[in-house]
């Protein structure tokens, strides 16, 4: 196998045979294909795309590059959820303990914030002491004890993806539907799950703004995971305005706790229940989504999912007291209200809010940056509300006065007051099944 021949073939729009692609990927893992050659290949694949046969070879090679978890067939069904990334999306923090409480097993491996969107690991680390870096043996033990575990990517799972993703990140080749699909689905299959739900965010606050493209990515991922024997469905959900009332790590944990207690904002509860219901139905624990959502809603209202979350926090080294007293979460010293610039109907642009939250320190500008768990935004009014000039629309939580002022300046681009009420749009846009 000559690496240059493979690169040229993909560059010129040719179709690689299974043997060619597998040999190229293995040679890369062994060190006989250089990083610059893989970079060139990724760009060729980005531009030319991968056909279904090539995609399934890539998927298989990524899975086989590392360990694959296995769960006993007679134990609780193992399930997981993946979101393509949004602003204010704290669904994972609620869904994992909720489904564990409903009798499922949730081996959740999550990521950090990407671009203007937040990441589950950064949110969990806002809980004092919470450890997301555990090895596979400990991960399994936590799953056996609690029914769910929430950790970061381990070195043992899909190491080829880790290397490819690092290259894509610096070569402008992240937003390729084929490469994204292989990257995401491989890690979920390696978790050993039997059912998966994908939350494909669509709208101005999502990485994919176009509905057809979002549908295409969802279809590719659903088909890929289904072919691997994982029962998979996807929901396309709206990401035009932030989900829930908070953006920022500790603030989002607080809101997740409220929702686990049966409260929380209606949109967050709706998306969480819809995604969780997909999984309950997939594993045959409920006849349909309506029945599943009713069962899961009752669990939230009864408080048992919050208790399970507290147990999870404790076994992962965190302070379980935050579940009863969110005042124990880190809090920002500066709180500045942001007044409405006019009277009318409020519109909030999720992307600009996400960018402002990164500037405030809730996300990273560079991978090596630390995040400040305390900072973010707490909305008192939501997109679609009728508001009056001067009333506080939100509170900026900042580390210092300069940060609060910069954020307020950026927010002037995120907030629009319109004389007309907005057209109402459903939160769950579409459902795609295998
Ligand atoms: N998240 C992933 O895990 N992989 C991608 O390629 C993009 C987002």
Task: Give the topology.
Elements: H1 3-11, H2 18-30, H3 35-48, H4 52-64, E1 79-83, H5 91-101, E2 106-110, H6 120-124, H7 136-146, E3 148-152, H8 159-171, H9 177-190, E4 195-202, H10 211-227, E5 231-238, E6 246-247, H11 249-260, H12 266-282, H13 289-302, H14 304-315, E7 334-339, E8 344-348, H15 350-360, E9 376-379, E10 386-387, E11 392-398, H16 401-414, E12 415-418, E13 428-433
Bound molecules: uracil (URA).
SSE topology string = HHHHEHEHHEHHEHEEHHHHEEHEEEHEE
Give the tally of β-strands.
13
Number of domains in the coordinates? Answer: 3
CA distance, first residue to last residue: 36 Å
The general outline is globular
Rg over CA atoms, rounded to whole Å, is 22 Å
CATH-assigned homologous superfamily of the largest domain:
Nucleoside phosphorylase/phosphoribosyltransferase catalytic domain
Q: What is the CATH class name of the largest domain?
A: Alpha Beta
Low-confidence stretches: none
Percent in strands: 15-25%
How would you classify the helix and strand content by structural class? alpha/beta
The helix content is 40-55%
Under CATH, the topology of the largest domain can be stated as Pyrimidine Nucleoside Phosphorylase, Chain A, domain 2
Order of strands, main sheet, comes to 1-4-5-13
The CATH architecture term of the largest domain is 3-Layer(aba) Sandwich
The ligands found in this model are:
uracil
